[in-house]
Amino acid sequence: MVDHVFRHAQRVPAHSGLGIKRRRFPTKATKSIPCVTMKTSVTWINDYLEPDAPAETQGDALTACGFPFEGEHQLEDGEIQQEIEMSSNRGDCVCHAGLAREIAALTGRQFQPPESAPAATGEPIDQRMQVDNREPKLCPLYTAHLITGVTVGPSPKWMQDRLRAIGQVPRNNLVDATNFVLFELGQPTHVFDLDLLEGDAIVIRRAQDGEAFMPLGEDAREVRLHASDLVIADATRPVALAGIKGGAETSVTESTTDILIESATFDRVTVRNSSRRLGIASDSSYRFERGVHPAQARAAADRLVALILELAGGTLHRGVAIGGEPIPEPTRVSMRTSRCVQLLGEQLTQKHMVECLGALGLEPELDGDEIHTTIPHHRLDLKEEIDLIEEVARIHGY
To answer: Which of 119, 265, 293, 304 could bond 377 through an S-S bridge, CB–CB 3.0 to 4.6 Å?
Structure first.
C-alpha cells in the first residue's frame, strides 16, 4: 500500500480510489502522541500578535501547523472561545503566548511576548528567606521572591475577562495572577502566605513515608505521602506537593499581607507518578508532565511579580532566593538540506528552509549543505535533525 500526501486545499482526482483522512507528518517525535483540547481566547492570543488575527485565521493557522481546531463558542461579551487540540510533546504551546508564537510563524505576523522588569526596593531577600534544594535532579531550579504589604482584593475587569473567557472562575488578585501567568506562559507558579511558613527556609526534599499533607481545594482530602514524592516544605511540614498542588495550611486569604512567590521546574516523571498514585491532578501537573525549562521559570517569575505589584501593591524584596543547578545554555542542532529534500520528496530551496526555521525563532545559519540552529529554551521537543525536518514540513504546509 502506498501513502499519498496532499496539502491543505490540494485537489484530489475524483476517481482516484483514495481514502482521505487527516494525518500528522510521521516522525519519531509525533508517533502515538496522546492529545487533549485546550480552551483559548481569541482576544487573549491577539494580545501577543501584531496585527491581530481573526478567529478563523487563528483556527486555520493552528490546524495547519499541527494543533487542530476543534470548535468555537461565541460568548456573551463578544469574545470567542476556541478549542484547540494539544499534543503532549509541545508543552510550550499549552498557553496563549505559545499558540500566538505558532500563529505568527505561519502567518508572517509579529510575535510580541510579554516582558516584565519589576523594581525591587525592599531589604535583601536573604535576610528573610533561604532556599535549601536537597533534590536538584528532581527540581532543577527553584526560585522564591518576597513581596510584603500586599492588599488582597478582586482582580481588575480585564484580568477577570481573560480568565472567564477560557472557563476559569476569578478568585482574588493573587490567585488570579498565578492563573493568568499559567495560561499566558504555560509556567505553573504558587503563592504562599509568608506569615504561615515556619522557619526561614524553603526546603525541597523527598517526603517521609506516611507523612500527612492537606492539599488546597474545596473537595480536597488529606493524603499520606510516600518517599518517592517530592515536596516543598518549611521547617516542620510539607507546604506543597511539588508541581502538583499547594497546601491548604499556607494558602493566601483575604488577610494575607506578606507573600512568597514560587516559580520552579520539576522532574516530569516524578510529578506524573505522584499525581497518579495520589489521585491529585491539576493544571500545574498537566504542564510539568509535558516539560518546563528552567529559563521559563525565571521569566514567569518576573511576570508574576510585576502583575502582583500592579494589582495588589506591596514592596518587592531585592534579589531572588534560588536553589538548583545553573540554567543550561541553548543547544545547537544541525540539519542537512539534502536530507530534508530526500525525506519530504520536494525540491525545497535552502532559502525557503532557512525562512521556515527562522520563523520559529531557531536562528538558522546556512553552511554549505547544512543549516545550524540554536534551539530556544521553550522547544524541549527539538533534539535532532529529524525534528528540524519536521518543523520545515509543518511551516511549509504538509
So the answer is: 293
3-state DSSP assignment of residue 276: helix
Residue 24 pLDDT more than 50?
no
pLDDT at 290 over 50: yes
Domain end marker among 303, 324, 345: 324
Q: Which amino acid is at 379?
A: R
Identify which has the larger pLDDT, 3 or 56: 56
SS3 assignment, position 157: helix
The 10s digit of each residue's pLDDT in 204-236 is 999 999 999 999 988 889 999 999 999 999 999
* CA 295 distance to own-chain centroid: 11
Does one domain contain both 80 and 206? no
Biggest distance spanned by C-alpha atoms of the chain: 77
Classified as helix, coil or strand, 321 is strand
Residue 384: give its domain's CATH number.
3.30.56.10
- Reference 174, options 283, 284, 266, 258; nearest CA is 258
Residue 34's pLDDT band, with cuts at 50, 70 and 90, is low
Work out the number of other CB atoms within 10 angstroms of the CB of residue 28: 10
Q: What stretch of H or E contains 182? A: helix 173-185
Whether omega for the bond prior to residue 364 falls within 30 degrees of 0, making it cis, is no
Query: Cell digits for 343?
Result: 525525506
Amino acid letter, residue 105 = A
Task: Label residue 398 by pLDDT band (50, 70, 90).
Answer: confident
Dihedral angle sign, alpha carbons of residues 126, 128, 132, 137:
negative
Residue 312 φ/ψ, nearest 5 degrees:
-125, 0
Are the CB atoms for 318 and 281 separated by under 8 Å? Answer: no
User: Which grid coordinates belong to 107?
Assistant: 502567518
> Within this chain, do residues 188 and 314 fall inside the same structural domain, yes or no?
yes
Give the pLDDT score at 30: 42
The pTM score is 0.89
